[in-house]
What we know:
heterodimer, A: 167 residues, mainly alpha, 77% helix, B: 176 residues
Amino acid sequence: MEGQNIESLIEKIFSRLLSLSYSMLADEQVARDVVQDVLEKVWIKRHSFNEGVNTEAYIYRMVKNRCIDVIRRRRFQSPTEINLIAHPVHYGDNSDLKDLYSITRNIIDKLPIKQRTIITLRDIDGYDFTEISDMMSMEETAVRMALSRARKTIKEKLSGIVDYGIK
Amino acid sequence: MELNNIKHLIDKYLAGETTAREENELREFFCSGNVPEQLKVYSFMFGFFRDEHSRLEQALRHTTVPDYKKNEGHVAVKVRTGRRFYRFMTTAVSVAAVLLVALIVFNMQNQGDASGMDDYNEPYCYVNGQPVTDLETAIHYASFAAEIFEETMSETKQSLESLDLLADIFNTTDKY
């Protein structure tokens, strides 16, 4: 594939790559590093991309695989440490809201990777289903099903906390 | 918006069947502040999504495309070396760990033998090739052996005295 075509493709899909990476990792800095690493490899391999091959899908897959590598390595890292780095949101002195924020974040982080990625892409980033199914290389119905499971899990877990814990 | 309509949209939302427009309606409703107590949980959900969205807007959306051309020719080699080194180190550490464990187990076994842990079953003596593990029997055999030894010694002494006597007789004969 020509260098110019690759450049324009990267320009077009860069924000999606970043969103995909962040959805999987929940850490902005690491998400950026992963995307940079993948783009460097894509640029080096640009001559080996044949016409007719879905380069866009291939790049999404590279990002997903790289994120999975990072997640595997992260198993040895404490979750608290990851959350502190990744979620520096400030709610002033309202400790209930702060608690709810970190609880919701925790619930999302504990979802299966696919569900976590899809709910982040849809409910936080606002991508439409066609874009998400492209990024995830999944059928739209499968995306909707995973999204439904993720939403129900978050709702159930939050209900328990809101009913009995924080009012 | 009517509560029944909201509940209908929530069901669709949870089933993953809402359109972007319907989700916007829900977002507006739940972030408005006039939410019934039984639906409060959705306020937290949509509130979280809204806050995360604006945070990400600031953090990610304004990020420019990085310079991915700068390491041309170096990246592939660097990554491969890292992986090889990681695999080599993993294997080396595993082998070292196995050897260490084997050494510790071997030493523990040897110490167990040397410390006399099994001495309780060691026989006190052997009589006619048979081991004697009972202390009283062993003492009995030992004193019996001592008696035999004493008898043998006194018989030997008597024999030697007889020999001395005979030698004296012969010596005297020679002299005379």
